[in-house]
Recover the amino acids of this structure.
């Protein structure tokens, strides 16, 4: 399984997602549901950032789906 486990990688992704959600007025749950059908994803990513336990491992395919969702949404918003 190819996954993103480093906090730098996940931290950067989470920062990008948070900026995206703020820019478009989208809630955590709505973003997760629309992007990858997981309304708890963002809350879990945030809690892993501060928890002593290992961060949730995101598959590269999940990371790609999140990034594709944001890119498509931006294109649609610009049209």
């Amino acid at each position: 399984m190819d996954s993103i486990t480093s906090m730098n990688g996940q931290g950067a992704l989470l920062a990008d997602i948070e900026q995206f959600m703020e820019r478009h007025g989208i809630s955590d749950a709505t973003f997760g549901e629309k992007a990858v059908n997981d309304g708890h994803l963002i809350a879990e990513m945030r809690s892993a950032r501060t928890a002593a336990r290992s961060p949730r491992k995101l598959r590269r395919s999940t990371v790609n789906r999140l990034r594709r969702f944001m890119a498509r949404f931006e294109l649609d918003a610009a049209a």
User: Anything to note?
Assistant: The beta strands are 3-4, 58-59. The radius of gyration is 12 Å.
